[in-house]
Design brief:
3-stranded antiparallel beta sheet, 6-stranded antiparallel beta sheet, 9 helices, 389 residues, alpha+beta
């Protein structure tokens, strides 16, 4: 096992370029899916389309280097209204059909050479400037957006993770909403989507005691995930089947042949990256094979969680590189404030002041320009920062 210290970091320009290439791809595919969120659309079809496009786009990178791995780093999930996360149904499971007014969270990730960029964005079906989002829906949406903007300004070397935790809670409170309890943002490293350093949001007393605080350091990379609910912010499992899993570092001699075959395929096809059972050749066999693997902790599940019925959960997730010239947000789409009208606002002077500060890093040195140019030309806008208020 490669020790953490030996893994390449963003101190290396080529690593930064690979992160930005992954980011280009997720931003591009996310935009396509946002545009495809229409009334009477199928959630399953959106998830399948997202994964297909992520595979196509990552397949175009570094074609000559046959050894370099690339592909989906987090399968597309589309979670609607009170569904909090990880919903991406199998072909054999019930679908969800979108309707006007639905709050849709799209979550995905891609990697080039194991350098992961993840993103999540919330869109309300049918919302326009003439027909904006209002009420509790608008409160959750605005709170999630502003909390993620505040988090971006706090994730920087020398700051501590709990500063982010407390600020996200205060923003939620200002809008009469709750951050979803116990949700984690993770440090990212090559081929590792969940590293030791994490940021917890809205921890319970027990979680607060168990959860360490960490300090952000230069050249680290984080996936900052903000989920805010108009409900009670408590995630619970319902009847939706788990479909997203990832391999762990544990070992165990599996007894069943189907389990061994499944585990071998996962190791070869996905390595340490999360995957959807739907992307295995035989869905039925995969559903059987995964059971023993999960029992013995060789594979970990990503639970499909729900808040109470009638609640609306909004999510914004971005990937940020802690560069010497400041935090560099590489994923995420601009937030369209004209389509969201909340009656509430942030009164806290410190948070207001924080949100007024620029999130753009100071002008970067010229030496990286050639590498960056190759990455940015594809869509032009993707790696640019989504400016705050």
């Amino acid at each position: 096992m490669v020790e953490s210290e030996e893994l390449p970091t963003i101190a290396d320009d080529l690593v930064v370029t690979k992160y930005k290439m992954s980011a280009e791809i997720v931003n591009k595919v996310l935009k396509e899916l946002v545009d495809a969120c229409k009334a009477s659309g199928s959630v399953r079809d959106l998830c399948i389309l997202g994964d297909k496009r992520l595979a196509e786009e990552t397949g175009k990178a570094f074609k000559k280097d046959k050894k370099l791995t690339k592909g989906i780093a987090f399968p597309t999930c589309v979670s609607v209204n009170n569904c909090i996360c990880h919903f991406s149904p199998l072909t054999t499971e019930p679908d969800v059909i979108l309707a006007d007014g639905d709050m849709v969270k799209i979550d995905m990730g891609a990697h080039i050479d194991g350098f992961i960029a993840v993103v999540a964005h919330t869109v309300v079906v049918g919302a326009t400037v003439e027909n904006p989002v209002t009420g509790g829906k608008a409160d959750a949406l605005m709170a999630a957006h502003l909390a993620s903007e505040a988090a971006l300004r706090l994730v920087k070397p020398g700051n501590e993770t709990y500063e982010v935790t407390e600020t996200v809670s205060k923003v939620g409170e200002a809008f009469g909403c709750k951050p979803v309890e116990g949700m984690l943002s993770h440090q990212l490293e090559q081929n590792r989507i969940r590293r030791r350093k994490t940021i917890i949001q809205n921890p319970s007393e027990a979680q607060r005691k168990e959860h360490d605080k960490f300090e952000f350091a230069l050249h680290e990379v984080y996936a900052v995930d903000v989920l805010i609910s108009s409900g009670d912010g408590q995630g619970r499992e319902k009847d939706a089947k788990i479909t997203v899993y990832k391999k762990t570092e544990d070992t165990y001699m599996l007894k069943m042949k189907t389990s061994r075959e499944f585990y071998s395929k996962v190791s070869k096809q996905f390595g340490t990256m999360p995957f959807n059972l739907r992307s295995m050749e035989e869905e039925k066999k995969a559903r059987m094979g995964v059971v023993e693997c999960v029992t013995h902790k060789l594979i970990e599940p990503f639970q499909v969680l729900f808040d109470k019925e009638g609640a609306y959960v909004a999510q914004y997730k971005f990937t940020v590189l802690l560069m010497p010239n400041g935090p560099h947000k590489i994923t995420g789409l601009p937030f369209d404030e004209a389509t969201c009208k909340s009656e509430k606002s942030i009164e806290d002077a410190e948070i207001q002041k924080l949100l007024k500060t620029s999130a753009n890093p100071k002008a970067a040195k010229k030496k990286k320009k050639a590498a960056e140019k190759a990455v940015t030309e594809e869509t032009g806008a993707a790696p640019t920062l989504v400016a705050g208020q």
